[in-house]
Every structure is written in structure tokens, then in C-alpha cells.
Design brief:
The longest helix is centred in the middle third of the chain and has 24 residues, at 268-291. The protein has helices spanning 20-41, 44-58, 128-135, 138-142, 180-201, 210-224, 236-247, 268-291, 293-296, 302-318, 331-343, 348-361, 365-375, 379-392, 399-412, 417-424, 462-471, 496-508; strands at residues 66-70, 73-83, 93-101, 113-117, 145-150, 229-234, 252-258, 321-322, 328-329, 449-454, 475-481, 520-523. The strands form 2 sheets. A 10-stranded mixed beta sheet has the order 1-2-3-5-4-6-7-10-11-12, sandwiched between helices. Strands 8-9 form a two-stranded antiparallel ribbon. The two termini are 27 Å apart. Helix 1 packs antiparallel against helix 2 (44-58) and helix 6 (210-224) packs across helix 7 (236-247). Helices cover 45% and strands 13% of the residues. The chain is globular, with a radius of gyration of 24 Å. The protein is of the alpha/beta class. The protein has 18 helices and 12 strands.
Length: 532
């Protein structure tokens, strides 16, 4: 499952080693050796010319910022060419798409550049610059150049990775296999998708890891001309932040990690951990609907609402709901839509109203509307999600293990067990083999880091976030007690307690003083009313 780009996404690591500085150093050493050899066999000015050429080749690019509009927001945009393979920095290049909301404070009050990432992997991030600039305290926002980016392979970056643009078209096979033949059909889909990625972009796949994106972040820093950068990452973006801090710790100024990935579980174990907490979140949704039985009429107990939900799923399996000129809603589309309520309870009123309308009147208008808004899959995002997670670390290659683990989870947490397995199944057949273990996160010597975490978050479960906390000794965590939403800071409606910690930290570097794993707490926002 994804660790959502504040949409859908999860996480991954380093197949080719912690090599950026080493690779660059080796490249520079080779260049210097060539210059020295030239100098010994020809005139001194030839050595000088070779040195000048090498310096010019290794000089950071300058970013050419131009006015642009991203997701309706006016910003500045630029592109940056980065190495496909950082072991060969002068080799083939790919392009990153960047956005910026420039600082407006007086020059002597500015605090440099703040890079932001919404998660994924696969989430397009250029829009987040404007969103963060709007949601931060305006004085704090004015002190930073706030910079978003579409990571390699994503969105407006070039190339944009697509493995099978028609993969989500039409009604898909039910995530929950009714028999062995149905399971084999779903396995076949996963194999075909992995093969399609290899056929279309086999040259790119080995270079789509989280570590590659962390190196891209450092290329952005260099192009900005900054010795250090600040960072705000959500969801998978917290794993990207951990990777950057591990590889480039001396270049971190300030860092906020909101809804933090457990780096030690990347990715197979993390996905299984999600299943159990998503079960808790859908049960919380059922209980909320039951508490508002007068509005929705789906039952007065959680169990009754659950029965109604599964009845709707069964009916959509037997008779998918066709839109007049839009998508068709079968069981997978229904699951994908309802899953979003596990990420944010602000979606509960719309989801409950759509479910009630379908069961009471057979109207599919609400379901179709919710699916278009929430459940529709972006194949580019899905392709990058797989490319990153499947290559960060090697997944189990024996489908019997996937089957046994999923069936075990399904017995107590059925809501997301099979859905999540099939969302990641291509990793069992991926053409790129990652390392046996994920990137080892090293937090020693880092500057103070602020972590934000909901205690009931399903996409990045609390225990996993605290496992990450233990690896980052300079970090302080603000826990949102009873908070089940994924992404707690700078959201709508705002949690003013959480936002105050984030704003104070970016303004002055201030952190909570309490020791231990819970350094401060904030109350969760109340559940929504039935009217939204």
C-alpha cells in the first residue's frame, strides 16, 4: 500500500551502496589523474586547460526560474538535469521538474531554502510548495524559498515512468481471490505489469531507488547554491528525508518528518503492519457511521454497518456500477475509494453518504463521484511506487510466502490484506533485485529534527515511527494522541497545536524539551459531523 502523497504510497532503500560522495570523489580523482598525465607529457598550459574543463563540467547548474502555474497556483518553475547513475556523474542525464514560492522577507531575515515532499513513492511534489507556503505561518513562510519537486520518473520530470497505461482501465479482478484460479489470474497481472516495466523502461529501473532520489535532493541543493537545506517530508517523504540525512547529514539545516516510515521494515514488513492498523481505521469509520444512524440509516452498531459495507461490496462484485460517461465501480474500485477514509476522517461524511445512497436507493452517483475524487489510480504514480519499493530492497520471490502471510493477516484484518498484497505483488517478479537489507539509517551527528506522529495512523503506524525515532537521537516527537489521520501538520482543518510546533521550529529551531520517545503531545481534532 502506498504511504500516500497526502494520496497513496509507501517506501525503500539503497541497492548500489552509499556512494554519492565516493563516486564523485573517484570521478574527480580520475579527472585529476588525466590532467596530471597530460601535464607530464605536454605543455603546462594543457594541464591547466584540462583542469579548467573539469571544473566547468563539475560546476553545479544554475536554475532558470520562470513563472508557471501548478495545480492552479502561481509559482516559479525550473528544471534540473541530474545523473541517471550517480556512479557516473558525467553520463546520461534525466530531468527533474521543480517549483518555488520565493521568500519575501527582507534579505537579512531569510533562512535559506526549504525543500518539501508529499510522499508516495510516486507522488508529484511541485504543488506542495504553494500549499506549504499557504499553510505555514506567513512570517515563517516569508523567510524561506519553499521548493517542491517531482522526483525522478514522476509527473513533469523527464522521463515520466509508465509501465502499462491501461492497467487500471475497466473493472479489475476482485482483490479477494475466490479460488486458486482467481489468485493465479491476479498473479498473472502482477507478472505482466513487472514485465511491462522492464520492456518500456528497463534502462531506468535500476536507478529509481530512494537513495537515488536522496542524491537528487543534494543535486537540487547544489544547484540552489546552498551549503545546507531545510526539509519537510510527509509519509514516504519521511523515509526520503531519513535517507538524505544518512547520506548527507552535514548538509541538513532543519528537518520535519510528519507521519514517519519505519526504515527497518522497508518494505514487505511495513506493508503487513499497515494492514492491521487499516483494519482499525475502517472499524472506526463503521463505528462513526453507526453513531450517526439517524443520518445514514446503515445500522446502530459497528457490526451492523460493517455488514452493510460488505453487502455493498458483494453487490458491486456481482453487478458493477456503470457511470453514464465515466468509470465503472466494481469491488476493487469500491475498496480503493473507501480506503481513503483510512487516511483521513475528513472524508468520512462523503463516503458514508455515497454508501447509504447506494444501499438505500441504488443510486451510484455518490460512489462514482467519490471514486473520481479519491479512488482513481494514477498509473504513473503506481509505476514509480513499484519502481522504488521493488528496487530499494529485495522482496520475497516465493509467492507461497506472500500467499501464506496474506491469508494469515486476512483472518483478523481482512479489509486491506489482499488489496495491499496485490498492490505490491509486482515486487515478487520485479526485474531489478535490490539489496538483502534496506538502507541502514544513521542518525548520529544530525542537527535537531522535529517528528510529528498520529498515534492511530494506519499508513505509517505509530510503533514503526517510534522505531525510526530511536534511530534519530537528535529528533523530538510530537504525538497527536488519538490522531488517526495520515499527515498531521499544515492540514485542513488545521491542528493549531501541531502547527505551532512546526512554525516555531522552522522559525527558531525550537524543539520540545521533554525526554523519551514522546516529547510533546497534542490532542487530535474531533471526528467530523455528518454534514462534513
Amino acid at each position: 500500500m502506498t504511504v500516500m502523497p497526502l494520496t497513496r504510497g509507501l517506501l525503500r532503500a539503497l541497492p548500489r551502496g552509499r556512494a554519492t560522495l565516493t563516486a564523485v570523489a573517484l570521478s574527480c580523482a580520475a579527472t585529476m589523474l588525466a590532467a596530471c598525465t597530460s601535464a607530464s607529457s605536454s605543455a603546462p598550459d594543457a594541464a591547466k586547460a584540462a583542469g579548467n574543463a573539469a571544473a566547468k563540467a563539475s560546476a553545479p547548474q544554475r536554475l532558470d526560474w520562470q513563472p508557471c502555474t501548478v495545480s492552479g497556483a502561481s509559482m516559479q518553475c525550473a528544471s534540473l538535469a541530474v545523473p541517471l547513475d550517480y556512479r557516473h556523474p558525467s553520463g546520461q542525464k534525466i530531468t527533474l521538474a521543480l517549483s518555488m514560492v520565493p521568500a519575501t522577507a527582507p534579505q537579512d531575515q531569510r533562512q535559506g531554502d526549504l525543500l518539501v515532499n508529499p510522499g508516495g513513492p510516486g507522488g508529484a511534489g511541485r504543488y506542495l510548495a504553494a500549499s506549504a507556503a499557504f499553510s505555514l505561518d506567513q512570517k515563517v513562510a516569508s523567510e524561506y524559498n519553499i521548493i517542491g519537486f517531482d522526483p525522478r520518473g514522476v509527473g513533469a520530470s523527464v522521463p515520466a515512468l509508465h509501465c502499462d497505461p491501461s492497467f487500471f482501465a475497466g473493472v479489475r479482478p476482485d482483490y479477494i481471490p475466490a479460488n486458486q484460479a482467481a489468485e493465479q489470474a491476479l498473479i498473472g497481472r502482477a507478472k505482466v505489469y513487472a514485465a511491462g516495466c522492464e520492456h518500456r523502461f528497463g534502462w531506468l529501473l535500476p536507478y529509481m531507488t530512494t537513495a537515488d532520489s536522496a542524491r537528487d535532493m543534494d543535486s537540487i541543493r547544489a544547484a540552489l547554491g546552498q551549503p545546507k537545506i531545510s526539509y519537510l517530508g510527509y509519509s514516504y517523504g519521511t523515509y526520503l528525508g531519513q535517507a538524505y540525512a544518512t547520506l548527507f547529514g552535514s548538509r541538513v539545516r532543519r528537518m520535519v518528518l510528519d507521519s514517519t516510515v519505519d526504515p527497518q521494515g522497508a518494505w514487505y514488513a511495513d506493508n503487513i503492519s499497515q494492514d492491521y492498523v487499516f483494519e482499525s481505521r475502517i472499524q472506526a469509520f463503521f463505528a462513526w457511521v453507526a453513531a450517526h444512524a439517524a443520518t445514514y440509516g446503515l445500522g446502530t452498531t459497528r457490526a451492523q454497518v460493517q455488514q452493510a459495507w460488505y453487502r455493498a461490496r458483494a453487490e458491486l462484485t456481482a453487478h458493477p456500477a456503470d457511470g453514464a460517461s465515466g468509470p465503472t465501480i466494481g469491488p476493487d474500485e469500491f475498496d480503493d475509494t473507501m480506503l481513503q477514509g483510512g487516511y483521513s476522517n475528513t472524508l468520512w461524511p462523503g463516503l458514508a453518504a455515497a454508501l447509504a445512497a447506494y444501499l438505500h436507493t441504488r443510486s451510484t452517483k455518490g460512489l462514482l463521484s467519490e471514486y473520481k475524487a479519491l479512488g482513481g489510480q494514477n498509473e504513473n504514480e503506481f509505476a514509480v511506487y513499484n519502481a522504488v519499493e521493488c528496487s530499494d530492497v529485495n522482496w520475497p520471490r516465493n509467492w507461497a510466502k506472500w500467499d501464506a502471510d496474506t491469508r494469515r493477516v486476512y483472518r483478523t484484518a481482512p479489509f486491506e490484506a489482499w488489496d495491499n498484497a496485490w498492490f505490491n505483488a509486482a515486487c515478487a517478479f520485479w526485474p531489478v533485485h535490490g539489496p538483502a537489507e534496506p538502507l541502514a539509517i544513521k542518525g548520529a551527528g544530525l542537527p535537531p529534527i522535529l517528528m510529528i506522529q498520529g498515534s492511530l495512523d494506519a499508513a505509517t503506524p505509530y510503533q514503526g515511527a517510534q522505531a525510526a525515532h530511536k534511530l534519530l537521537p537528535s529528533a523530538r516527537m510530537v504525538v497527536v494522541e488519538g490522531g488517526g489521520n495520515h499527515g498531521q501538520s499544515l492540514q485542513q482543518p488545521p491542528n493549531l497545536c501541531v502547527n505551532s510546533y512546526v512554525n516555531d521550529y522552522f522559525a527558531t529551531g525550537a524543539l520540545p524539551h521533554r525526554s523519551g520517545l514522546v516529547n510533546a503531545t497534542c490532542p487530535a481534532l474531533p471526528d467530523p459531523s455528518p454534514n462534513g
